[in-house]
């Protein structure tokens, strides 16, 4: 898999300093932070990888090539530019300079976006230095990286910022010996990770999709530290349980939904709040809890939560199926019968038709005809009678949807409107 380092070169006449990262402290002062960041994070780059430096015309003249700065008297300030300095620490063949616009207009900003984006290779691993990204470019880079993750499947291996400003004002730093100036390199990779979690949360909130959550907690040996952090924040079992819930809804697994451990899932999610998380993660947890807060093992309440979930995510077929099948289940449970017994479920289904069409007993078919006592008890039951019209309306919708709208089809808006009406009717009768 190809790897790249990307950085935007600035125009200032930088002061030399050393850099620190975790327990690493560089030995020799350097003028450009890119030198040390590359030494620390790109020391194993090969001819298949690239060091990409993006520079404006001004940055190219002042800091890419040698002797680009002038003093107040317009005399040359001797300096070895970044190009030659990089050629001393990596193979010159992997150093790739790219000219970019100044970014003084929206059009130029979009050109910068396109220039950087076009350099990304499909699936490559990227290390980013944002130290000298002037004006709006840090925000542009974060947005660009997120876009490239979606479109070109790049992997963000690290985002770094050399915080020279912690040493103080330039005029004060000038008084410090270069070897005593130590600027920390900050790891900002978590901002990219947060964007991943934001996208995953968006997918879950708007589409009920957990795939991005699952990918975030999937072990990846190349990004061990990142995944250790994610596993600490969101244990995989939590995401797996949410995924099980979503898939059970999508595939209408009624029995599994009735027996699902909703309290256990909520408890696991709430326990995440006891961890020391970056603040935005607490909001993400709240959003997840909002989506599942109404789910419980009471079938009367559960069917309402499930049908509303399906309606919210345009899972109309699932909503229809779950409403009908849970209606049968609720009736059988009220009679203390086994709701998983196929014949009894068929009896209840037939009984709804018998009630709605007022079919006489001599015209009942199997299995209703061999369960007459149960059918007659159903026909006297108030809950059964109140749900009858809704159940039969669902039968019409179910036939329309399951036959793909080829026979007496309704348009989508009518199906959705009818379904909304039925759900409201169920709410008035089951609550």
SSE diagram, text form:
Layout: E1 3-8, E2 18-21, E3 24-25, H1 33-41, E4 50-55, H2 57-64, E5 69-70, E6 76-77, H3 82-87, E7 95-99, H4 106-119, E8 125-129, H5 137-151, E9 155-162, H6 170-173, E10 182-187, H7 189-207, H8 211-216, H9 224-233, H10 236-250, H11 254-259, H12 262-271, H13 279-292, H14 299-312, H15 316-334, H16 342-357, H17 372-380, H18 382-402, H19 412-430
Parallel strand pairs: 1-4, 1-8, 2-10, 4-7, 8-9
Antiparallel strand pairs: 2-3, 5-6, 9-10
Brief digest:
The protein is an alpha/beta fold and 431 residues long.
Could you list some keywords that capture this structure?
8-stranded mixed β-sheet, 54% helix, alpha/beta, 431 residues, single chain, 11% strand
What is the radius of gyration? 32 Å
**Proportion in β-strands:** 5-15%
* Number of strand segments: 10
Distance between the termini: 57 Å
Number of alpha- plus pi-helical segments: 19
The residue-averaged pLDDT reads 90
How would the global form be characterised? elongated
Described by strand count, sense and barrel closure, the largest sheet is: 8 strands, mixed
What string, H for helix and E for strand, traces the elements in order? EEEHEHEEHEHEHEHEHHHHHHHHHHHHH
Strand order of the largest sheet: 3-2-10-9-8-1-4-7
Q: Indicate the low-confidence ranges by residue numbers.
A: 221-229
Share of helical residues? 40-55%
Structural class: alpha/beta
